[in-house]
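Pilot study result, target chain (120 residues):
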Amino acid sequence: MISALINIAGLLLIAAIVWWFWIAGKKSSGERYQESLVIRVNDGVYEPDHITVPAGQAVVLQFLREDPSPCAEYVVFSDLDISTRLPVHETVEVKLPALEAGEYPFTCQMKMYRGLLVAE
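Predicted structure:
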């Protein structure tokens, strides 16, 4: 009986984690690239989490990490082989090469924070 309760509690905890990190309050916020755009890293999300950049042009993205969680310490553009450390409360520039038209996801190192860069 006790092991069944522990299993049920474990499943509820897993469901809560999935809901918190992948479902709850995840409204895609899209922005067009501009030099003054700052991507905030806070409360499990990138804001904005959907950024449109011009294809064929190098861009510099600015990230401001407000979340002290260790998961937020790096932003990773795995398709571009770019990983950059984000110190807490500092704006960090991430330089990206000219991109071909397409979609380029970016995440934290644990892939819990998710964003999408669209080159068009």
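One observation from the pilot: The longest helix spans residues 2-23. A full batch analysis is planned for the follow-on phase.
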